[in-house]
Structures are given as structure tokens and as C-alpha cells.
Amino acid sequence: MMSEVFWSFFVSSMIGFIIALLKLCYKSKCKEINLCCLKISRDITAEEHLDLEMPNNTPNNNNNSNNV
To answer: Count of domains in the chain?
Structure first.
């Protein structure tokens, strides 16, 4: 019983950690990344342009439809 709970918690935590790490890597605007034998070169100007085109998902508190 405890083993299943532990492993489901552990796997969910690791998936969350990996997603947070990938999000952090995407938000960093490093042009080249070297990790062991892996080398990644990115076009950060194109990514910045795409980031500006994407709508912001934060709620806007100024347009409150609950005005009475």
C-alpha cells in the first residue's frame, strides 16, 4: 500500500520537476547551451517574436463582469 503511494508521489514530483526545469530553460534566453556531449543552438530572436505574439493567459482584473 505505502509503496504505491510513494511511487505515485515520486513519479508525479519528478514529472513536475522536469516540466518546471523545461519551462525555466525555455524562459532563459541563452543562445547556446552545452550539456555534456549535447550542444543546442537556438534562434532567440524568433522565440522572442513568438512570445510577443502569444496572448497572455493572466486574468485581467480591470474588466470585471460582476459589476452591480
So the answer is: 1
Does residue 68 lie within any of the structural domains? no
Parent domain of 29: 2-53
pTM confidence score: 0.52
Cα–Cα distances (Å) from 65 to 51, 56, 58, 61, in that order, read 28, 19, 16, 10
- Give the three-class secondary structure for 41: strand
Give residue-wise pLDDT tens across range 9-59. Answer: 999 999 999 999 888 877 777 788 787 887 878 777 777 777 777 766 655
The burial of 44, by beta-carbon neighbours within 10 Å (0-12 exposed, 13-18 middle, 19 or more buried), is given as middle
